[in-house]
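Narrative summary of target 7.
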Amino acid sequence: MIRFRDFTKRYAGQRAVERLTLEVGRGEVVALLGPNGSGKTTTLKAAAGLILPTSGEVLLGDPPLPAARPEARRILSFLPQKVAFPEALTGNEVVEFYRELRGVPAERSRAVLRFASLNGAGERAVATYSGGMVQRLGLAVALLADAPVFLLDEPTAALDPDGLCAFYGLVERARQDGRAVFFTSHQLGDAERLADRFAVLVSGRLVADLGAAALKDRLAERGLMRLRLAARPAGLLEAVQVLAPAAVWAGEELIVPGPAAVRPRVLDAVRERGVEVRGLTAEEGRLDTLYRELIAESPAPEAP
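Modeled conformation, tokenized:
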């Protein structure tokens, strides 16, 4: 549904995105991650047909069409990073304006306003809305067309817990309906909860494209077990390091990095030496840790 093929965008000689090749299929939710200035918003705007590639191409739909073509734009809904509406209009008037612009039936307004859950503020001027209410209104407008492709730039920014729950439900329904959802986020918890795949941009270059299974494996490798032991018998650390080479002592604790699968064997090695285990904690790898590692490992950007 969304295809980037060697997509490159430069502004006045400065590279924003470099040779991005990435696809988002039907029923797939892909999170685009990266630090500020990495090219995420440029990538979404190119998919929305708002900017043209310097080279390469961005295609939408099936059969694929260039994203800038009007026919391609009709199949997508786009939520920009910064949502703004005329402040003199009410929330209901904003939705009605965009409904007529998109040419969709009147019942869609009622449906998206229920999703927006503006708590009776639909007749109030947008100028009176909080940031979270404006964000909900933006999501409601993006939903009007009931499009097969959703492009969402920081969709959870400023959402309160009720708004987040509604958004999670929206994404899950979109997946079940076979829509393609491509979103950016700095909220890694939201990305981990929602996405089937995780694409990471650094300095305009794709440094990782991980499916859920691959991500699970990568995170498992970054797990950690802490054992608080009654003693530090000779040879125990060396025996554990055969199983988990990065294991170290930290005071009374034996720190064992690595996947959960190795932990039972480590415990067997401890029991064989008759050592009392006074405490055990385990934690799995975190997406934010892996994310920082990918950024740190990425090569320095080349001169444009």
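The domain at 223-283 is CATH 3.30.70 (Alpha-Beta Plaits).
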